[in-house]
Specification:
- The two termini are about 25 Å apart.
- Helix 4 (about 70-85) crosses helix 5 (about 105-115).
- By secondary structure, the protein is an alpha+beta fold.
- Strands 3, 4, 5 and 6 form a four-stranded antiparallel beta sheet that branches. A two-stranded antiparallel ribbon has the order 1-2.
- Strand 1 and strand 2 (about 15) form a beta hairpin.
- It contains eight helices and six strands.
Length: about 190
């Protein structure tokens, strides 16, 4: 049982030291009905992602949501594409070295910017509420966003939630996407652990 194994991972010498609370990852969310209607399969590469975004953009529907605000919605989407291209913000072996301007990261930023033409007008300024709402309109094909999107889809109703699937962020030679987690912990001397 998963719950039992998480509890055991949170023990040391018979005492609890932390409990996992939330784990999440950024994924590519896609509108299954739009993909099926266009004869597309979920993209696994950047070329396929761009082609799908272009194909799905017509009339009053858009291929992909590309926010560019100062919100976490932008940083999580963009950082995931940077990782999927083999780039990063800092060198993991030498954390004092900034590599945000290396070719892999710059290429990812340029690719992200190029996708904006397939995004709804004004969506560059979207924050979390607007971005989540855009997905539930049925006029958006894809969105690189976190696993927590499922709760917004569920809140919109079972018929809306059933329209969407999620796959790993498409790769351009790199691997990975933004991940985050929260843990609960108590200090050893805590009065109420």
């Amino acid at each position: 049982d998963t719950a039992d194994s998480l509890v055991e991972m949170s023990k040391a010498d018979g005492s609890y030291f932390a409990l996992p609370y939330t784990n999440n990852a950024v994924l590519l969310w896609y509108n299954k009905a739009m993909f099926e209607s266009a004869g597309l399969t979920p993209p696994t590469t950047w070329d396929e992602l761009r082609d799908a975004a272009e194909t799905l953009t017509h009339d009053d529907q858009y291929g992909i949501l590309v926010p560019s605000s100062t919100s976490m919605v932008t940083s999580q989407s963009l950082y995931s594409l940077i990782l999927s291209n083999g780039g990063d913000v800092v060198d993991r072996d030498n954390p004092d070295e900034i590599i945000f301007d290396d070719s892999a990261s710059v290429e990812a930023i340029e690719f992200y910017s190029s996708l904006a033409q397939y995004s709804p007008p004004g969506s560059g300024g979207y924050d979390r509420p607007e971005a989540q709402a855009a997905m539930t309109t049925g006029k958006l094909g894809m969105f690189i966003y976190g696993s927590w999107m499922q709760s917004a889809l569920d809140a919109a109703g079972p018929e809306v939630a059933a329209q969407f699937g999620a796959v790993p962020v498409p790769s351009n030679g790199g691997a990975g996407a933004f991940m985050g987690n929260l843990s609960l912990f108590a200090f050893q001397g805590s009065e109420h652990p």
